[in-house]
């Protein structure tokens, strides 16, 4: 019996451990399907449906209100604010209430021994009953902890401001993406249905040439060159058509619309080039004042300065003051309730050794943050200049694209008339029609590039698309606020290329520049 006891104990422990083990089962297909259905419902829950053509301001408002990335930043901002509110309570004194009950089977009696004679000097006695209960309410406050908690609360409040600046950065990025995607989608909308007839004509002509090649009605090299030309045209048209089909889904994703949901965009009366109100010097000043990255760096500098002050406070002694009320039901006490108070000073002497190094570390961190802010300021000034130059470049490219589109249209009219009279081949007409269509599409692309460059300038300046306060978060009110904020009414830039004004019908002989002196 004694030999089987250890085995029984081991077996019991094994069964106990096995029973306490946690077993989980993998997610089933039905669980995953339920999660997918719930997520799809939550992604588009509470959104206003698209009932009319979407304006640029409405697209921006939808992106700011429904875009999931922006929602995440708003939630992070709110969480940081709650953390700042929670840390502010650390500055309050500690108020501790306690209650207890004590009972024993005999009296807590004791006697005394004479120190010199080592004999009992008193008969055994007790000063408390066998069962009694106690309560107390104590208020304590550590002045050093209050100072550190105050600085930590200030730091957490600055971190909340940092999260707000990061949210501003996300808003600037979303607005810029929406601006670019909107104008690209509008160009695709204007070109809808323009590529399919030409593609059908190219395929029909390609089939005819293949028949001519099969019947050997023309020289093989000539038909092969025709086929090569048409295949290259077909490839270009397919590429441009695919680009058109991807434009609206990109904008729909930014507005958080369900994939495949149809919507139309408002066609503006004209494709005017947005102008800039400020010169480069004023733009630099605005960027240094408004960019969220620099404001975040300012808050980081304040946080680092608070770290320096905390390192100094931690080297000081701590003073704790406490006061409290007490009650004891012990019937042998003369006073069953009393108020007690006191003060105590504590000093961690090891902080005198580690404190200077902590102070130097905090000072070094503060200097690093300041140097990073200076480097960031230089980078932001560079971004402003690059954005401005890119804006000028895109405006010039857009003007050239418009001129090229007009020329391509005139060439196509001449080629079409010549093909109708038989002096030009059908392939030349198709090639000219393709060039005209692509020139028109590139014109829309260049205008979208101008709008994107204009948005980059605004983003480099840190300009917010919304005012600080909005009366309502309805789409109509957000759209109106964005329109008022972005409607700067700045004059359009001057045209880089002016058409020549011919004063006479006589042929103009182009001026030939003189040769260099060494070549005369």
UniProtKB/TrEMBL annotation:
| Stretch forming the signal peptide | 1-21
Q: Where in the cell is it found?
A: Cell outer membrane
Q: Name one GO cellular component term.
A: cell outer membrane
PROSITE patterns named in the record: PROKAR_LIPOPROTEIN
Which Pfam family, any one, appears in the UniProt record? OEP
- Whether Signal counts among this entry's keywords is yes
Which terms are listed as keywords in the entry?
Cell outer membrane, Membrane, Signal, Transmembrane, Transmembrane beta strand, Transport
Entry-linked InterPro entries: OMP_efflux, TolC-like
Presence of keyword Transport: yes
**Molecular function as annotated in GO:** efflux transmembrane transporter activity; porin activity
Query: Record's PANTHER family?
Result: OUTER MEMBRANE PROTEIN TOLC (PTHR30026)
Q: Which family does it belong to?
A: Belongs to the outer membrane factor (OMF) (TC 1.B.17) family.
The name this protein goes by in its record: TolC family protein
Q: Which species expresses this protein natively?
A: Geomonas terrae
